[in-house]
Amino acid sequence: MAFFDPKNNTKTERHRTLYALYEIAFTTVDVSAALLFIVGSWLFFYPELEAPAIWCFLIGSICFAMKPTLRIVRELHYLALGDFDDVDKAAHG
């Protein structure tokens, strides 16, 4: 198994299930970040709501940072399912 190989998500039924669950997480993070940025932008029209607007942008930015983190965690999760021989072969030729 190689990291970020598109075939990783179809190796077994468990891989397919994990892929679907992580896709739900990615989509949830994307939608959350987008909504926070939209709300934050709207709040900036009102000077007295500047602090909540800043918080929306900060939390939205954290959501965007979660996506690559989730991708790495997914790949490590695939690795935890086994198939260590392929990883060793890829690493050592």
UniProtKB/TrEMBL annotation:
Family matches, as InterPro entries: YrhK_domain (IPR025424)
Annotated ranges, domain YrhK: 21-75
Residue intervals passing through the bilayer: 21-45, 51-70
Pfam families xref list: YrhK
Alphabetized UniProt keyword annotations: Membrane, Transmembrane, Transmembrane helix
Name under which the protein is recorded: YrhK domain-containing protein
Lineage: Bacteria, Pseudomonadati, Pseudomonadota, Alphaproteobacteria, Hyphomicrobiales
